[in-house]
Amino acid sequence: MITIAVLMTMTMAKSEEPRTLTDIANDVKQLPQTVSSWGKSEWEKTKAYQKEGWAEAKTKWPWNQIFKSKAE
User: Fold this and answer.
1) Integer Cα distance of 31 and 23 in angstroms
2) Which of 38, 41, 60, 72 is the most exposed place for a label (fewest CB within 10 A)?
3) If we measure between CA atoms, which residue out of 46, 5, 50, 54 comes closest to residue 27?
């Protein structure tokens, strides 16, 4: 309930025209999809960041010694 109240307050504060209950109900219905898509995009950004960080870390000592192949 608090989330809905905050959402309604933020939405009303941004718009200059009055919102109808139908508009607010549609926003509430779309909330799970909006949160889900935000979570998925954050997850993808985190995976990319971690992959980049791990690739960089493997090039630095001592990882370059640990992962060096025996043939070298």
Assistant:
1) 12
2) 72
3) 5
pLDDT number for residue 5: 73
* Backbone φ/ψ region at 37: left (φ over 0), alpha (ψ -120 to 50), beta: alpha
User: What is the CA 25 to chain-centroid distance, rounded?
Assistant: 24
> What pLDDT sits at residue 22?
92
Burial 22-46 (b: 16+ CB within 10 A, else e): eeeeeeeeeeeeeeeeeeeeeeeee
Contacts of 27 (CB under 8 A, 6+ apart): 7, 11
Of residues 48 and 11, the one with the higher pLDDT is: 48
Mean pLDDT of 46-64: 85
